Amino acid sequence: MKRSLILTVALIFLLQFNSRAQTTASGAIFPKGTKVQANFTGAVWVQTLVPNDSTFHCVVGTVTFEPGARSYWHIHNAGQILLVTDGKGYTQEKGKPIRVVYKGDTIICPPNVEHWHGAAPGSSMTHISIIPNADKGVVTWLRPVTDQEYNAAKE
Ligand code: MN
Predict the structure, then answer these.
(1) What is the value of pTM for the model shown?
(2) Which of 1, 14, 32, 137 would bridge with 77, disulfide CB 3.0–4.6 Å?
């Protein structure tokens, strides 16, 4: 009886440890979240960390892109701040060259400037997304980033 209780407690501990390890694989800081389909090319996961509310009007989330995955072209009415927490990625504002970004980089997306962000071809990329003044609108999705646009990166 005592032995089976110890085994049960050990099993519960192992299951919890394993579940935690899956949501924060490879030393990730925040849970990977849910896989999303619309408005992205390739596999992308999103986890909301702070939902919009009437006090802060600020949406915070973490987004993970598999290698080669990227957002569609889009606009944030009030802008966006991105903090790269893992990997290597690309970001581009309309009419400008692609910028290569790495873990630890900050990306400022000014209000109403068309842009996209995603992973580099050989690396996943995770960033925190901060959207201030969310009552002005969070995001307007436009069209996919073509392979030709994505492959125009000069490294
Ligand atoms: Mn954006």
Answers:
(1) 0.82
(2) 137
In angstroms, the CA 31 to CA 144 distance is 26
1 CA distance to ligand 1 middle (Å): 57
Query: What are the structural domain ranges in the chain?
Result: 24-150
7 alpha carbon – ligand 1 mean position (Å): 48
CATH class of the structural domain 24-150? mainly beta
Q: Using one digit for the tens of pLDDT, what is the confidence trace for 13-42? A: 444 544 444 444 567 889 999 999 899 999
Phi, psi of 20 (to 5 degrees): -65, -40
Q: What are the pLDDT digits (tens) for 101-121?
A: 999 999 999 999 999 999 999
Q: Under DSSP, is residue 150 helix (H, G, I), strand (E, B) or coil?
A: helix
